[in-house]
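Before the break, one more example. Copy the sequence into your notebook; we will annotate it together after we see the structure.
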Amino acid sequence: MKAARRLERAQALAAAADCRAAGQRERAAAAAVGRPRSTLRGWAEAQVAAAEVPAALAACCATVAGVRGLPRLVLAMQCVITLRAGSGVRLVCELLELSGLSALLGASYGSQQGLSAALEQAVMAVAGEQRAVLAAGMRPRAVAVCEDERFQPAICLVALEPVSGFIVLEQYAADRTAATWTQALRAACAGLPITMVPGTADAATALCRHIAQDHGAHHAPDLCHLQHEVVRATGLSLARAVPEADAEVATAEAPLQAERAAAQAYRTQRQGPGRPPALAQRIRDARATLARVTVARNQAQARQREAHALIRALGEA
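Here is what the structure looks like once it is written out:
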């Protein structure tokens, strides 16, 4: 049953009920409404609530206010779930099924998907109207624009103002050259009193040229590529230093163990004439070497941890 049809039935039944309340007979009330008596009876019988819907709720939804309120409720679900929360139409269908409202209105994917598409078109139309109205009273300002490219299902150029989250540009394009970027952004900013100061994007040649040459703005690398460049410059040397230091520690531990074993063996043997070997000095030298390489290893590990922390801090600034 379509929404307009439901409203027409609810209005006819409400008018007939008012006539009956005023003392008119059923035949006279039907004539006053302009509907056959059998039609009014059939519509009234069709208002019997489903098993999962309370009778009082079904009766409320059958009134003029209820018929007008149900579509508004579904529209609010669509707006919050699909547009604000970014979820799909199937969640709207599931909510209608679980609430029992599917007995009173269409809850299939096809019907809700059509409503979702119509809602998106309406929002885009209102956005275009409001954009022109708000731009007329907007003071000139300099803004930063973050630009990127998506490839699902085709090349899509996206530009975002990071402070407000306003999507300046979002459109498909045949290519992603600097000329295409410049033409698309200028068309998107037409009528807006804004000047792009820095442009944040990756290091693609087309984006760099589009920002620096076509718009005369400063090209700021995005965080991902900035962190990648820092890691590429420092990560390998820092990563090599730790295993090299571990190897030096292992190398220094072997002489110390050997000298300790030699000293233990010397003490268990019978001592002959002559000067005893300088075993204590050898052990001290081996310990000093081990301590030096251990400190170097700890420093290498600390530098690696510090570098990781500083790179992560770039994303928290």
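The first helix runs from residue 3 to 21. The mean pLDDT is 83. Try to locate both features in your own notes.
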